[in-house]
Amino acid sequence: xxxxxxxxxxxxxxxxxxxxxxxxxxxxxxxxxxxxxxxxxxxxxxxxxxxxxxxxxxxxxxxxxxxxxxxxxxxxxxxxxxxxxxxxxxxxxxxxxxxxxxxxxxxxxxxxxxxxxxxxxxxxxxxxxxxxxxxxxxxxxxxxxxxxxxxxxxxxxxxxxxxxxxxxxxxxxxxxxxxxxxxxxxxxxxxxxxxxxxxxxxxxxxxxxxxxxxxxxxxxxxxxxxxxxxxxxxxxxxxxxxxxxxxxxxxxxxxxxxxxxxxxxxxxxxxxxxxxxxxxxxxxxxxxxxxxxxxxxxxxxxxxxxxxxxxxxxxxxxxxxxxxxxxxxxxxxxxxxxxxxxxxxxxxxxxxxxxxxxxxxxxxxxxxxxxxxxxxxxxxxxxxxxxxxxxxxxxxxxxxxxxxxxxxxxxxxxxxxxxxxxxxxxxxxxxxxxxxxxxxxxxxxxxxxxxxxxx
Amino acid sequence: xxxxxxxxxxxxxxxxxxxxxxxxxxxxxxxxxxxxxxxxxxxxxxxxxxxxxxxxxxxxxxxxxxxxxxxxxxxxxxxxxxxxxxxxxxx
Lengths: 455, 91
Fold this sequence. Notes:
Chain A is of the alpha/beta class. Chain A is about 60% helix and about 5% strand. Chain A has 17 helices and 6 strands. In chain A, strands 3-2-1-4-5-6 form a 6-stranded parallel β-sheet. In chain A, helix 16 (about 390) links the parallel strand 4 and strand 5. In chain A, helix 8 (about 205-230) runs antiparallel to helix 9 and helix 11 crosses helix 17. Chain B is an all-alpha fold. Chain B has a domain at about 25-85. Helices cover about 80% and strands about 0% of the residues of chain B. Chain B has helices at about 5-20, 30-40, 45-50, 55-85. Chain B starts with a helix and ends in a 6-residue tail after the last helix. The chains are: A alpha/beta, B mainly alpha. The interface between A and B is large, with 112 and 81 residues.
């Protein structure tokens, strides 16, 4: 009897070590795949050894649940297109939250023999799991445009939220102190409602923060469930995920120069309109003429935004990159942390287009040497290259770290029209003397340049 | 194990997590998040004992669904992370 417990726990130690090593290997693109494999092995080991548990008397349902889950997981992972990764991660955040909620629920359903402290922990597992689940589903619906992306607010929402928090605290107290154990349904219901209410007022542009935060919560939910059932490996793995999500949330907030509180509650504030008028003239340029500048350029910096992915222009850009490199020029990509719809999203999209990862530079690497680039090509990006963030006090995005594309010798902006970005702010970059606007579909413009090169 | 020891493990794990994840480059943040999805599927090992135990239909049903969902995270998370990481090549 004792032996199987010992084997299980010893294997858990090995698993925890492999999880940590796996994350360590994720520190560089060349070793990352091995790291992921190591992490998967850790998980497999943990699952297999858990099946030795003496309290398992029937395997029918377990086999069915694992098989069905594997099929669904495999299908999701195989079928998703890379532009839809934020949706998938959001969905998996929610699924993870729900799994932890159900684990906590079945734990309390199995035995009433818990101390008050343990019941409190179970309450937190239910609460975090519920919030993660419903919040992630709303985030997923917003990202996939099943519901509108703009902040959804209604009169008295703040009051409803306060009532909700009080309601959760009160029902939680009654549940945990066993005055009214049947309040578990109320706890779950209120947690689910809370998740919905937290994410609804957050706008589509802030989704990178929300996904990161919910990613963290899904780990913390596993952590809480782990404390509730006294399982060390759940705590270690959950804490790693929780820490990861918190770091990413912080990076995203910094990249937008906002606090987490501001992101979570900005939907309630009235939009500040800036009345700063930008002086200057827009100089358009045809894609044909842009070619002559590119042909003479020695170094080129590409600044992609989500618009590039929407136009599916990354493959055309890679083709142009090859031609420019053959022509003797250096081409690098400057990637802002919020260039995509989630942390690191743009890098994945460019990697998919076969761009070598050592050409994908972070904002801090590229900014000190922007002046040395002959041409900066801005594709489908707007706010992340807005110089107003640097030198226009009073602009809503003032203070946000941006890629200083305007300091390059020439700037080409590939854009459909003169509309403003997510932040609704005009971009002085478009009016600079060294900026040329190449209007039209980004993919078409790039293809025109590619054709010119082949002629 | 008593709750305090568990909290010790929690605290140390969070510190290890912070130190490890701070070193992961921005390029790999999306695979990091999908990999985190997979790791959070660790709840499966907690649910297994309850899913196969003699806790009654109610407990079993809840735990079986939990195993199902957590497995989606484990398999889906690792496979999609591997798919993404395979795209990162150096030329």
